[in-house]
Amino acid sequence: MGYADQRFDVNLSILFTELPLLERPAAAAAAGFTAVELWWPWTDTPTPGRSELDALRKALQDSGTRLVGLNFYAGRLPGPDRGALSLPGEESERFRANVDVAADFAASVGCKALNALYGNRAEGVDPAAQDELALENLAAAARAADRVGAILLVEALNKPESPLYPLVSAAAAIEVVDRVNAATGLGNAKFLLDVYHLSMNGEDVAAAIDAYAAKTGHVQIADSPGRGAPGTGSLPLEELLDRLGKAGYDGWVGLEYKAGDRPSARSFDWLPRSARPAH
Length: 279
Description:
Elements: E1 7-11, H1 24-30, E2 35-38, H2 50-63, E3 66-71, H3 90-109, E4 113-115, H4 127-147, E5 151-155, H5 170-184, E6 189-194, H6 195-200, H7 205-212, E7 216-221, H8 237-246, E8 252-255
Parallel strand pairs: 1-2, 1-8, 2-3, 3-4, 4-5, 5-6, 6-7, 7-8
Helix pairs in contact: 1-2, 3-4, 4-5
């Protein structure tokens, strides 16, 4: 087991950000990777023009990289926002406008996982009303994902960095996953298990893996503290990924860490080049 047995992909919204968006797939390919993931790349619009979508699709195809994970519109990310779907008014309307756009783009590049960030608690809004709106919008997202043969991901973030985000434990995210599946009957809502976020919340990551591997649809890693590459912190990432494998998870592992002050390509020195292409 170990790193060589994983299916890694590179998150192009946190790595290779020194390059323009359309140059990042080729940079990932030059570093030896064949799979990538993205946060919603157009933070200012949920409905970019066809030419922008076509250009990103071409960049992926020309580089020979496959998009394996895509966020729905989530507001300003990175930045102050943590999703849009539970925010009443304009932001949830923007999320709804994005649902089919994101699903159709995912379908056009063979992407089978769409991540819907829940959104922060809004001042002066009843949390129960936000949760009701969230369920309605997540159900719509799950149906759109199902229409294109994809899964819907629900992610737990960490409270120190996202104090207004309500899903700051594996159990909280799993509860939402179960609620969405009950509402739609589709069963395609899954947990996005981000090892870094769970660790920052003080969770027993190994116990979370044992409890929720069967409901996990995607995994992301960064070391902690610092959110750097494996080996820059104290998390036993190789052991945790082995544990996931033994628990039955055989999906993608997104590299969602900060390169620090090095060029992104140098931040992969921990991973032998032979282990970088997806297999």
